[in-house]
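Blinded run. Sample ID left blank on purpose so nobody reads anything into the name before looking at the predicted structure. Input follows.
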Amino acid sequence: MRTNNSKVKNLIVSVYFVLVMLAIFSAFVFQSLRHLTPNPFLTLVLVAVIFLGIFFLVHRVSKYFEYDSDGHKVVIINKGLLLTEYLNYREKSIEFEKENLLGFKFRNLLFVKTLDVYYKDRKGIKRKETFNITLVPKKKRRYIRQSLSKMIKANTN
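Blinded prediction complete.
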């Protein structure tokens, strides 16, 4: 089974655009925010902290996810959505035989959904890898769960 969340890339680009427009808008409206605090520098810091918090939250959540279990191997790839063609600093991928899958766990944290995969590497050492699946639709997460469960069941027999 192959699946990915490539359709959300346009959504994330739109969110970044809205964030940049919000930053520009808040720069123009900065004078009207003077009533929040008596110190204008403190108001600027407050607006900057809120903007940077939202920006880094979107940056942390926005990841491309690809799952491929066709053939004898399972390939799972997680990488950033923006600038991935030029800077691949956020990429994480694993590839292992279906027989080496030990277990998996889906976790729902506050803003992030993750997939933990437990497997044996080529040397027989047990490993755990965590992948960000926040932007993967619920239906596709269900298909991934079914595929991994089927592999686990085949490995126990």
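Unblinding after everyone has recorded impressions. The two ends are 21 Å apart (CA to CA).
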